[in-house]
């Protein structure tokens, strides 16, 4: 996981989910390093993420965040992308990256589309 994607997860848990930031950070500290390995993005990853966003982003049809594009850019070097995010799954598939569709908070898997 990149530090950029970790920041996005922390933001979602705190800002959207309502968890106390200190509680989120305490939980993260139990996982990093160890269970979660952080990958620091390079200039090559940044360029790849920007190119992916330019190719795949659309405000209404495929709302990829820049953090999503970093996850995809780094995964191209390091294996399989696992996410519940539909736009990210579809972009990964279109980019030829191996994906695992996880269940979202409602227990549903995003469609990869065809």
Task: Describe how the helices and strands are arranged.
Blueprint: H1 3-16, H2 21-31, H3 43-56, H4 66-78, E1 81-83, H5 86-95, E2 99-101
Parallel strand pairs: 1-2
Helix content: 40-55%
Radius of gyration: 14 Å
Proportion of residues in β-strands: 5-15%
Low-confidence stretches: none
Shape: globular
Structural category = mainly alpha
> What's the tally of helices?
5
SSE pattern:
HHHHEHE
User: On the 0-100 scale, what is the average pLDDT?
Assistant: 88
> In what order do the strands lie side by side in the largest sheet?
1-2
Major sheet summary line? 2 strands, parallel
The termini sit apart by: 27 Å
Counting DSSP E segments of at least 2 residues, the number of strands comes to: 2
Note the main attributes of this structure.
114 residues
In short:
The chain has 114 residues and is mainly alpha-helical.
Q: Can you walk me through this structure?
A:
The protein has 114 residues and is mostly helical. Helices cover 54% and strands 5% of the residues. The protein contains 5 helices and 2 strands, in the order H-H-H-H-E-H-E. The protein has helices spanning 3-16, 21-31, 43-56, 66-78, 86-95; strands at residues 81-83, 99-101. It has a two-stranded parallel sheet. Helix 3 (43-56) crosses helix 4 (66-78). The longest helix is centred in the N-terminal third of the chain and has 14 residues, at 3-16. It is globular and about 35 Å long. It starts with a helix and ends in a 13-residue tail after the last strand. The model has no long low-confidence stretch (mean pLDDT 88).
């Amino acid at each position: 996981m990149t530090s950029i994607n970790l920041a996005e997860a922390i933001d979602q848990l705190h800002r959207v989910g309502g968890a106390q930031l200190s509680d989120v950070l305490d939980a993260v500290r139990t996982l990093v390093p160890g269970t979660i390995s952080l990958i620091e993005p390079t200039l090559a990853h940044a360029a790849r993420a920007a190119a992916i966003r330019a190719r795949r982003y659309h405000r209404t049809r495929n709302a990829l965040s820049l953090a999503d594009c970093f996850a995809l850019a780094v995964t191209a070097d390091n294996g399989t992308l696992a996410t519940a995010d539909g736009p990210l799954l579809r972009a990964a598939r279109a980019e030829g990256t191996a994906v695992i569709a996880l269940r979202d908070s409602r227990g549903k898997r995003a469609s990869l589309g065809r």
